[in-house]
Amino acid sequence: MRIYFERSGGFMGLRLAGTVDTDGLPAEDADSLVEMVESADFFNLPAQLLPDTEGGDRFQYKLMVEDEARRHSIETDGSSVPASLWPLLRRLTILTRAGHGGFDTN
Amino acid sequence: MSNHYHSIFCILPPHMLQEIIEHGTPMQRRMALKNLTIGAQVRGRRHDLTQFAKLQEEAAGGLNRTVFDAQHGSALPGRKVRGEGDPPVGDPAVEEAYDGAGITYQMYKEVYGRDSIDGRGMPLNSTVHYQKGYDNAFWNGEQMVYGDGDEDLPISERLFNRFSASLDIMAHELTHGVIQAEAGLVYRDEPGALNESMADVFGSLVKQRSLGQDARTADWIIGAGLLTSNVNGVGLRSMKAPGTAYDDPVLGKDPQPSHMADYKSLPYDNGGVHINSGIPNHAFYVAAYELGGRSWEKMGKIWYVALCDKLNRTSQFQAAADITLAVAGDLYGRGSLEQGAVAKGWQEVGIVAQDSGGGDGGSGGTPSELPGCLPMVKAIMRLRG
Ligand SMILES: [Zn+2]
């Protein structure tokens, strides 16, 4: 499974982006990532989870997940994200920050 | 800016004014209230005066804080843990959110005469411990929300402390509410960067006032102490020197520009609202530094009046420059030190401010506080669609 992840905005406005391939992860980490995608019911989420209110400093997320059979993308600012998706967003944030991508360094 | 309407008093029927008072923006409400009382005085009708007294009472409001605990979940607002007047509960994040909202409320009240976010005593709600590893703070349109940084990582990998640890960040979030209630600057491109800058300006002023710092002793850092010792940086942004707050192997280099020549139209962050805010941030800093003294008093007042009475949803940097220059002229006189400082501030970031508000004899008052027909009629047309 391949996941493209991007988080931008937030108080600092930085972009954190990267691609995680489960083939390149230790088996345990790969399994837990696939499990998070499943428990979020990711492939059935609406492509756009749009804000329900005005606001400032929210993060914006973009995710694309693909395996042999499926491919799906979503975009959200976090305001109407199902609770089941948050663990995946956090895990991807940590992974992209630690070697599978990174903050834009200009 | 067209201020030509301000010299004409406008007496509208009370039911129309009532409609504006109930549904208009804070600025429209103020004007409508003023119209209502003048109208009542002119007509001498007891009914109108009684109604006015009632509306004024409703508008009394006051400080009313509540802090909620999301208990590391994502549901808002979460469990109520401290209400107005309640004693501390022994959780630093709760105490910070409570005190931060109070200190911010006091500046708006005591310096600018504003009663809370909406000018009518809106309750100040904050949620702490939002999610796990949430390295952010935000305004969700109704309340302030604070994460704990990256508390879920080993200490050696953490980049951020909890976001309520910084008074200017809390004041920044609350100010997003004020902006939403006033100019309503759209959160994208230049208007969005102005929105961000206004939040930083008043965030910093709240902190400077609480520390008793003047323009020359303040550090003008936003979020000082927010980065852990693992990061090479002094804070999240610098108004004094945008682009220099951090330079780190993991976070990268602070990307903020301080000059129009370096404006970045970005494919993320709503066009770079947190990046390009460095430009108006620096203009404010230069203006405040040039004038000296306590920045929340005169320079803050100029920016505040511009935000509440002059800027609108789609204002760009040039409009902000022109408007703050005109407001400085209105408040402190054309050719005053204050107006000169504002011009210098914008000039330093590559924007030539044009004062279009002159020629009214320099009465020294704030023209926009005088009731006029045009804004009232516009408000009614908008409310009635
Ligand atoms: Zn903001």
Report on this model:
The complex is a heterodimer of chains A (about 110) and B (about 375). Chain A has one domain. Chain A contains two helices and six strands; from the N terminus they run ββαβββαβ. Chain A has helices spanning about 25-40, 85-95, and strands at about 1-10, 15-20, 50, 60-65, 70-75, 100-105. A six-stranded mixed sheet of chain A has the order 3-5-4-1-2-6, covered by helices on one side. In chain A, β4 and β5 form a beta hairpin. The longest helix of chain A has 13 residues, at about 25-40. Chain A is globular and about 40 Å long. In chain B, the strands form three sheets. A five-stranded mixed sheet of chain B has the order 2-1-3-5-4, with helices on one face. A two-stranded antiparallel ribbon of chain B has the order 6-7. Chain B is of the alpha/beta class. Chain B has two domains: about 10-180, Roll (Elastase, domain 1), CATH 3.10.170.10; about 190-385, Neutral Protease Domain 2 (Neutral Protease, domain 2, Orthogonal Bundle), CATH 1.10.390.10. In chain B, about 50% of the residues are buried. The chains are: A alpha+beta (about 110), B alpha/beta (about 375). Chains A and B meet through β1, α2 and β6 of A and β4, α5, α6, β9 and α7 of B. The structure holds zinc ion. Zinc ion binds near residues 172, 176, 196 and 199 of chain B.
| Order of adjacent strands in the largest pleated sheet of chain B | 2-1-3-5-4
At the first level of CATH, the class of the largest domain in chain B is: Mainly Alpha
Tally the beta strands of chain B.
9
Q: Mean pLDDT across all residues of chain B, rounded?
A: 86
- Protein chains sharing the most extensive interface: A-B, 31 and 43 residues
CATH architecture of the largest domain in chain B: Orthogonal Bundle
The H-and-E topology of chain B, N to C, reads as: HHHEEHEEEHHEEEEHHHHHH
β-sheet strand percentage of chain B: 5-15%
Tell me the domain tally of chain B.
2
Helical content of chain B (DSSP H or I, runs of 4+): 40-55%
| Small ligands present | zinc ion
Report the end-to-end length of chain B measured between terminal Cα atoms: 24 Å
- CATH topology annotation of the largest domain in chain B: Neutral Protease, domain 2
